[in-house]
Amino acid sequence: MKTLAQIAAELQGYDPQALTCNDVGRFLARLVEPVAQAEEVGIFDALGRVLAHEVISPVSVPPHDNSAMDGYAFDGAQLAAHAPLVLTVTGTALAGKAWQGSVGPGECLKIMTGAILPHGLDTVLPQELAQVDGSRITVPPGRVVAGDNRRLRGEDLMQGQAALRKGERLTPAALGLVASFGIKTVPVHRRLRVAYFSTGDEILSLGEAPREGAVYDSNRYTVFGLLTRLGCEVIDLGVVRDEPALLEAAFTQAAQQADAIITSGGVSVGEADYTRAMMKKLGDVAFWRIAMRPGRPMAVGRIGSSVLFGLPGNPVAVMVTFLAFVRPALLRMMGCTDTEPPLLKARSTEAIRKKSGRTEYQRGMVETATDGTLRVRITGNQGSGVLSSMVQANGLIVLHHAQGNVAAGDAVDVMMFDGVI
Ligand code: AMP
Ligand code: MG
Question: How far is the CA of 203 from the centre of ligand 1 (A)?
Fold first, then answer.
């Protein structure tokens, strides 16, 4: 486990007072490590979990050549380019039963989708193309070629082939693939435990009476949602008032129980509260100013062996810093190899003012334009406390560090929420 000072020494030009978003990513990738423990879980419990070992296909899928259609199977070598082919139906092959018997030249087999293609038969004429006359069928010329409508043994996967990589998150398709091997359980990293709490004397818990100058806590709920979508085990430590004893108790409990701790509020410079002081006292923590908007202040480090993410207080800044930095770091801790969300390109419907020298995130709604291309429009007030524009958005427009003003019609990068949060 590297100390923050060791990581800082590895990064050229590291300046906690002026970090780029890129620097943050590189720092966090060094700070966090995948959890070592793995467990074997049933497929129904494996959705979204991260594979701890690769999965090798123990069988070929499908195990036999089989028919992709209901129709008539025959040896395609008999097809002539321009002449019809007349065949005698010698039997019927059903899915799930191997057909016993032989099919010679001039013969065919009625066959159902999924039924094994007997040796020597490589072509299936779909039922609707066959002209049937008693026990004879005619294959019209030019409608099928040899090998049509056949699923080859192992075309999905060959026995012994790596089917799923270590570090892959199990999707619905992956669950199905594992099941298709006849495998009931998969080895996955244990779930990540993440504790979180909100700080600030002006923050009200739900159920408390409103009072002047105070706001209801929203960060715990967005963080809960973001963590739950990631498949983490969450430990909710509530709103912690700005008192050293309470903060110390919360940090200590979080560090004992969780792999990671997420707090919101109290990390900006000049905060008249005890949050920063307590982080410093209890852990190895750096206080950053990041060249980004929204976001900027963030505390990062370790308390005990837990990784600390001290996010800013503003509700949108919490979500943005989570998506930009915390999510990739947590995915890495979960054992994932693929941690960065893909970016889409969409045309901005409007001009956007952008200062170069910082990364800006704008809430946007991506839609398909009438010409079939993607366009994105900004969803209202972009204040860092305004959650309603976040709710109306389906992604974050990412205006990169060196990028300047955007003209209407320019392509911009968008990090889509769908499938991410
Ligand atoms: P801070 O980073 O503590 O200076 O907070 C910045 C702004 O975010 C202030 O207006 C806070 O009232 C607000 N804020 C902080 N924490 C929360 C929270 N948990 N829920 C809603 N707003 C918050
Ligand atoms: Mg505060």
Answer: 7
